[in-house]
UniProtKB/TrEMBL annotation:
Name recorded for this polypeptide: Nitroreductase domain-containing protein
Keywords, in A-Z order: Flavoprotein, FMN, NADP, Oxidoreductase
Source taxonomy: Bacteria, Bacillati, Bacillota, Bacilli, Lactobacillales
InterPro entries, A to Z: EF_Hand_1_Ca_BS (IPR018247), Flavin_OxRdtase_Frp (IPR016446), Nitroreductase (IPR029479), Nitroreductase-like (IPR000415)
Pfam families: Nitroreductase
Superkingdom assignment: Bacteria
Family the UniProt entry places it in: Belongs to the flavin oxidoreductase frp family.
PROSITE patterns recorded: EF_HAND_1 (PS00018)
Length: 241
């Protein structure tokens, strides 16, 4: 197995980092360059990455997200932002209309590009002997974060990435059975038994953070009235009507 495949297959999330470990400027630059080389639709690169170095800013993020103290304790914290402000400037220079709120497509483009850049950053970090964890809960405070970091219109914070030197070893988390995820030529129905088996797999795995069966967790999640925080932010940033 080559080194790249080994890193991909053994990737796991780390949440406990050595607070004294310093990621060098050269290592950070490698991570950022790898992120920027991710695939992008039409080479649009509809995202920005904010390297949050100021301790007070990171402390504020943890105040809003107390369940993620690693945002402060990690060596590096990166914020990935869907960025359609750049192409707004392009449209203005070219005298073109810019009706982003007519379709969800631009939001999908920006989210996809940012996610691809994020994954490149994750793998680059792993290749340097570092660990990382993706932080999706920042969207709960998207409006506040946008104001804190002075994000312009047509941008929206998507997810963060804490990077550092792990101090607690983590096991590779089992994934859903392949036959429930991978399909050839068309979507193939599968037995719910596969999900029940996965519930048991995760129970046997015994991750302390999990207090419910996998299926119950998502049954509860999607039964709850959806938060409109992201919708409201997108409206505020002129990305949704």
């Amino acid at each position: 197995m080559n080194k790249t495949i080994e890193i991909l297959k053994n990737r796991r999330s780390y949440r406990d980092f050595d607070e004294n470990h310093v990621v060098s400027k050269e290592e950070l630059q490698v991570i950022l360059e790898a992120a920027r080389q991710a695939p992008s639709w039409m080479n649009g690169q509809f995202y920005s990455i904010i390297v949050i170095q100021d301790k007070k800013l990171r402390e504020q993020l943890v105040q809003w997200n107390p369940g993620n103290p690693h945002m402060l304790k990690s060596s590096v914290f990166l914020l990935f932002v869907g960025d359609l402000h750049r192409t707004k400037m392009v449209s203005e220079v070219h005298g073109s209309s810019y009706s982003l709120d007519e379709s969800i497509e631009p939001i999908i483009l920006a989210t996809t590009d940012a996610a691809l850049a994020l994954e490149n950053a994750v793998i680059a970090s792993e290749s340097l002997g570092l660990g990382s964890v993706v932080v999706g809960s920042i969207r709960k405070y998207g409006k506040e974060i946008s104001q804190l970091l002075e994000l312009p219109e047509y941008t929206f914070p998507l997810f963060g990435l804490s990077v550092g030197k792990p101090i607690v070893e983590m096991e590779v988390k089992p994934r859903l059975p392949e036959s429930a995820v991978i399909h050839y030529d068309k979507y193939h129905p599968y037995s719910y038994l596969l999900i029940e088996q996965y519930n048991q797999t995760m129970e046997d795995f015994g991750e302390a953070r999990e207090t419910k069966a996998w299926s119950q967790k998502f049954a509860d999640y999607f039964a709850t009235a959806p938060s409109m925080v992201t919708d409201q932010l997108l409206q505020l940033q002129k990305l949704m009507k």
